[in-house]
Amino acid sequence: QVQLVESGGGLVQAGGSLRLSCAASGRTFSNYAMGWFRQAPGKEREFVASISRDGISTYYVDSVKGRFTISRDFAKKTVFLQMSNLRSDDTAVYYCAAAGSLSYYSTPSEESEWDHWGQGTQVTVSS
What we know:
mainly beta, 7-stranded mixed beta sheet, 11 strands, single chain
């Protein structure tokens, strides 16, 4: 079992930046691919980004490519989502997720592939 706690959300103006953090505890951090999802009001939860167990491979939904960067720090057992050039349609609750039982290089994106979830952190972008 792994526990995930997100932080770093808040209110930001359009065009601004935020960095989300997700601290993991419990099982071995490197055993899990890590990712971020988001859910906007009235919408289904959607995939945002993932990073492989070895931290080398990443994968993004098209709408955030070039604006968001996912990374992980093995010493701190933390995964980050650096968000830049934020837009009003980025407003959502952002969830951290962990996926086990995958190859070392996988970057999962389907919700069914993820085993553990954080409680979420709110990001609000004002226009």
